[in-house]
Design brief:
Elements: E1 23-30, H1 35-46, E2 51-56, E3 62-67, H2 74-83, E4 87-93, E5 97-104, H3 109-120, E6 125-131, E7 136-141, H4 148-157, E8 161-167, E9 173-179, H5 184-196, E10 200-206, E11 211-216, H6 223-232, E12 241-244, H7 250-282, H8 287-290, E13 296-298, E14 301-302, H9 303-319, H10 321-332, H11 338-362, H12 372-394, H13 398-404, E15 410-416, E16 422-429, E17 438-441, E18 450-455, E19 458-461, H14 463-466, E20 472-474, E21 479-480, E22 485-486, E23 491-497, H15 503-516, H16 520-552, H17 567-581, H18 585-604, E24 607-609, H19 612-617, E25 623-626, H20 628-632, E26 638-644, H21 650-661, H22 667-683, E27 693-699, E28 703-708, E29 711-716, H23 718-723, H24 730-741, E30 745-751, E31 754-762, H25 769-778, E32 782-786, H26 791-801, E33 805-807, H27 812-824, E34 829-833, H28 839-844, E35 847-851, H29 856-861, E36 864-866, H30 872-906, H31 911-914, H32 920-939
Parallel strand pairs: 25-32, 25-34, 32-33, 34-35, 35-36
Antiparallel strand pairs: 1-3, 1-4, 2-3, 5-7, 5-8, 6-7, 9-11, 9-12, 10-11, 13-14, 15-16, 15-17, 17-23, 18-21, 18-23, 19-20, 19-22, 24-36, 26-31, 27-28, 28-29, 29-30, 30-31
Helix pairs in contact: 7-9, 7-12, 9-11, 9-12, 10-11, 11-12, 11-17, 12-32, 13-18, 15-18, 16-17, 16-18, 17-30, 17-32, 18-30, 18-32, 21-22, 24-26, 30-32
Length: 953
């Protein structure tokens, strides 16, 4: 289990057998009891040469270790951990790589399913997710059995275009354009220099383009170092130069090219289909001007029919080639999609018209009605619909696109002396910034990296990342986020995370992953589309047979058949209209477009939703379980008083408390240490060194204990004192009761089995908490509190914010159990928490919401991350989910409504009563309009406003 919630996005996973440089192994370790056990395991592993990093979860004993297999083996790491006294009961090497592929040519859900099936059939592919709206696929595969080339081949064999967007190890890749490279010797010199450079994992050279791609470890080296390495390789008169180039703009170019392609095809189609329409439908209605069309060329073949044939043929076979290709590949896969329906409809119209043309050419008496305008206008309208749909779909990721554009192009790199004064200042490309660089941020400039302020004071506008409009004070020691704006002061910032490791990049990666994942609601569309096309074809056939047989049998009046038509031609028009109007394109777009817009809007407002599943489940939430510390309260406890209860001095009390609590990461422990140090300075000198602690142990939800010198010290709540058989006198009981009634927590300190003193700790309630609980109640959602704190303090806080049900003194497992109890009653439960101790409950809940300022483990476990750490975003997440699901339902109405209403009208149900029929070209326009309506409906989510906005005070 990763300690950092975003580490999954950074692990280089795509490795072929030849160039494996870093691998990950997962261990299941038993007997982990406390934080010191974790420290022992991590220290032992990190001392091994070849181990890059290790993260150990104290909750479930899982450890993720990144190592270099050329230097050390997983077996050696396992033996080392076992030598420290722990049992490794499971060894599981991870051999899964991930890549993202852009897919061209998908028209509907049937297409995305075909791609998914084609990928699943590739040997070595473990999982494939295809996003129709995003036009991408995310593929998990075994690099020992297959590679990205085979994956792309499989997609192309299925009849679709494919381009590799990224692979798992692309996160730390540098793309450079080389100058001064003229021969194979130059290539060898540069390759050798780069491969020998410290921190370089892999080098790929493109000889034709004189480009090089370098995979590197950002903790060891960086772009500037690698460019300098190439320059240093110059020998004699030969001078090598390297400059950055970015292949990342390919996606935008492809999108522009696709839009241009559909526009050009539509205009080319109109060039022929508009005259066909005029010759067939307009001029014959204007007798003096249309008479020349009736001129007979040979036998009964008229000039008008001949021109319609000549003009419609390029539309049918040049512009319409895409439908033939799509149909071929779909039928070869034994499936059917939009292309099959369009090809069937247009071919029926075109080739029947060809039959009419040949009959008129060879007969001196035959006259028939052609449908050349039907096939050409149908193709034109479908292309217009696709053009408008792609324009609209491009806007569904606008919110995410704005996030990616927040990073500035240039930055000021400075060198400072020992006093912090700037010695040199250089303007460099943002992509050249390396870890630990000092960057100067001038007033009004965007911050290019995540880092720590080392000099200067200012305010940062972080609204574009967190949604919080109020500027945040920044001074030395504070963190800054990439993409945010420095408002007034000049800052010197030390880079801690650059490039793909920044919080902004990780947010974008998570949102993209969420947009690609299918929401459960999408399964309905998948099931419908799987059987929809065959049903439509059967319905069209029944329509044609019905009208044709009834007409030939004389069951309906002859005057129903338009002039110059017969029963066969009328039936054919009805059948073609049914084929075209019922296309399921809109159905496939109903869910993913709404999810794309909603997840992008959520990210821009500080609510990071990790997938369509979370977005869908959140609208069902009926009860919200809140943690107390750091969730309902500010999470920064402060000690308001300290008292003695025995013969021990205040200095002894403080020394013992500092010694034991210094090893704990709990916010209350930190508050006790800080207050005890102040008291130590007040009552005497404060020693720099903290006393050593032996046998340190964390008692989850209760406190800590250990041996300081030869004395046993226990620091924690009343429950821990009872567990350790420490007697509590009436004076202490009275002190505890008084403070608990004031919503304060009492931290008792026991030395050698006697209560030496106590610290009274308070944690202020968040100002928005009461209003948020009230607003949830108005939404029909109940709230309860589950906390490890004592009952009296928890009840006091609950009364203050308006929560009626409280479960206090609950350990992490107990929190998860309480969530499961509520689920057993049939409730959809959301858990809101911020700490490691909340992780089991966050995982157990239907929707886990982690406070953004909380621990990385909690963020990793959650489905939704509240980046602003504001409780009002709990409401935002649930309300956004409700609005999105409402929009998805409306999209289904738009999509299915066109089909349910359009198919009977197209089949001629209204024709006998009011004489209304749907010509095939108009049916094509309706089909295109349904997709456009669905996408436009989803785009309305861009105007989403928070239902509750509380100004920070």
């Amino acid at each position: 289990m990763e300690a950092n919630g975003f580490d999954d996005a950074k692990i280089p996973l795509l490795q072929t057998p030849e160039d494996v440089t870093v691998r990950i192994v997962m261990f299941q370790i038993s007997d982990i009891k406390c934080a010191s056990c974790v420290n022992s395991i991590e220290s032992a592993a990190m001392n091994l040469n070849g181990v890059k990093s290790i993260a150990v979860s104290p909750l479930d004993g899982r450890a993720a270790i990144k190592f270099v297999p050329k230097i050390i083996t997983a077996k050696k790491i396992k033996e080392t951990i076992e030598d420290t006294g722990f049992r490794v009961i499971e060894l599981d090497e991870q051999e899964i790589s991930v890549c993202r592929v852009r897919i061209k040519g998908m028209a509907c859900t049937s297409c995305s399913e075909s791609v998914e099936n084609a990928l699943q059939m590739v040997d070595g592919v473990k999982k494939a997710i295809v996003g129709l709206a995003l036009e991408e696929a995310k593929v998990h595969f075994d690099p020992n059995l297959t590679d990205t080339n085979k994956i792309i081949e499989a997609i192309e064999d299925a009849g679709f275009g494919a381009d590799l967007i990224s692979s798992g190890n692309d996160t730390n890749k540098l793309h450079l354009k080389l100058e001064g490279v003229d021969s194979a010797e130059d290539v060898n010199v540069i390759m050798s220099s780069l491969e020998l450079a410290v921190g370089v994992n892999h080098v790929e050279m493109d000889l034709t383009e004189h480009k090089v791609t370098v995979s590197y470890d950002p903790d060891i080296t960086g772009p500037r170092s690698l460019i300098h390495c190439i320059k240093e390789a110059s020998c004699g008169p030969k001078m090598y130069q390297a400059t950055l180039y970015s292949p990342s703009g390919q996606r935008e170019k492809d999108k522009v090219n696709e839009i241009r392609m559909y526009r050009d095809q539509f205009l080319f189609s109109c060039l022929f289909s508009v005259p066909v329409f005029v010759f067939a439908m307009v001029l014959p209605m204007l007798p003096p001007y249309g008479n020349w069309l009736n001129y007979k060329i040979h036998n009964m073949l008229t000039l008008g029919l001949f021109l319609r044939w000549i003009l419609s043929t390029p539309v049918q076979f040049i512009v319409g080639k895409r439908f033939y290709m799509g149909s071929y590949h779909a039928l070869r896969r034994r499936s059917a999609n939009m292309d099959v329906l369009v090809a069937l409809g247009t071919n029926a119209a075109y080739f029947y018209s060809m039959y009419i043309l040949i009959k008129e050419l060879t007969s001196d008496t035959f006259q028939g009605q052609d449908f050349f305008e039907t096939s050409s206008m149908l193709i034109s309208f479908i292309l217009l619909g696709k053009y408008m749909e792609i324009l609209a779909k491009g806007k569904t990721s606008d919110a995410l696109g704005k996030l990616t554009q927040l990073v500035p192009d240039k930055a000021y790199l400075v060198a400072i002396d020992t006093d912090g004064n700037v010695i040199t200042e250089t303007e460099i490309d943002t992509q050249l910034i390396q870890k630990n660089d000092i960057i100067k941020i001038v007033p009004g400039a965007k911050i290019p990296i995540d880092g720590i302020v080392i000099k200067g004071k200012s305010y940062a506008n972080e609204s574009m990342i967190t949604g919080e409009a109020r500027p945040v004070d920044k001074s030395p020691g504070d963190k800054v986020i990439s993409g945010t704006i420095n408002e007034n002061g000049c800052l010197l910032v030390k880079a801690t995370h650059v490039g793909s490791d920044t919080a902004l990049s990780q947010i974008v990666q998570l949102v993209e992953a969420a947009q690609l994942a299918k929401a459960p609601a999408q399964k309905l569309a998948d099931h419908i589309s799987r059987v929809f096309v065959p049903i439509v074809v059967i319905a069209a056939l029944i329509t044609w047979l019905g009208w044709f047989i009834l007409g030939e049998a004389g069951i309906y009046p002859k005057h129903w058949i338009p002039k110059a038509m017969d029963a066969f031609e009328l039936a054919l028009q009805f059948a073609i209209s049914v084929l075209v109007v019922a296309c399921p394109c809109a159905l496939g777009l109903a869910t993913p477009t709404a999810v794309m817009v909603a997840s992008g809007m959520g990210a821009s407002q500080g609510v990071l939703i990790k997938g369509g599943d979370a977005l869908e489940k959140a609208h069902k939430v009926k009860i919200v379980v809140f943690d107390k510390t750091g969730t309902l309260t500010v999470g920064k406890p402060v000690v308001v008083s300290a008292v003695l209860f025995s013969e021990f001095s205040m200095e002894e009390l403080c020394d013992m408390a500092i010694a034991v609590e210094a090893s704990s990461e709990h916010p209350i422990a930190k508050a006790v240490v800080a207050h005890a140090k102040k008291l130590r300075q007040k009552f005497g000198s404060c020693p720099e060194e903290v006393l050593d602690v032996k046998d340190f142990e964390v008692h989850m939800g209760a406190g800590v204990s250990g041996k300081v010198g030869d004395r046993t010290v226990v620091v924690g709540n009343k429950r821990l004192m009872h567990a350790c058989n420490v007697p509590i006198c009436s004076e202490v009981e009275r002190y505890i009761s008084e403070n608990e009634n004031l919503a304060r927590t009492c931290v008792l300190v026991s030395i050698e089995g006697k209560i030496a003193g106590a610290f009274s700790v308070t944690d202020p309630v968040k100002p928005e908490a009461k209003r948020v609980i009230s607003f949830l109640h108005s939404m029909g959602i109940s709230s309860i509190m589950v906390t490890g704190d004592n009952c009296a303090t928890a009840t006091a806080i609950a009364n203050e914010v308006g929560i009626g049900e409280v479960f206090a003194e609950t350990d992490p497992v107990g929190k998860a159990d309480k969530v499961k109890d509520l689920q057993m009653k049939g409730m959809t439960v959301a858990m809101v928490g911020d700490g490691i101790n909340d992780s089991p409950a966050l995982v157990a809940a239907d929707i886990g919401m982690a406070i953004g300022a909380g621990t990385d483990v909690a963020i990793e476990a959650a489905d939704i991350v509240l980046l602003k750490s504001s409780l009002e975003d709990v409401i935002t997440a649930i309300d956004l989910s409700r609005k999105t699901m409402s929009r998805i339902r409306l999209n289904y109405i738009w999509a299915l409504g066109y089909n349910i209403l359009g198919m009977p009208i197209a089949a001629g149900v209204l024709y006998p009563f009011i004489g209304v029929r749907l010509p095939p070209w108009l049916a094509g326009a309706c089909m295109a309009a349904s997709s456009l309506c669905v996408v436009s409906s989803s785009l309305l989510l861009q105007f989403y406003k928070k239902p509750l906005h509380i100004e920070s005070t």
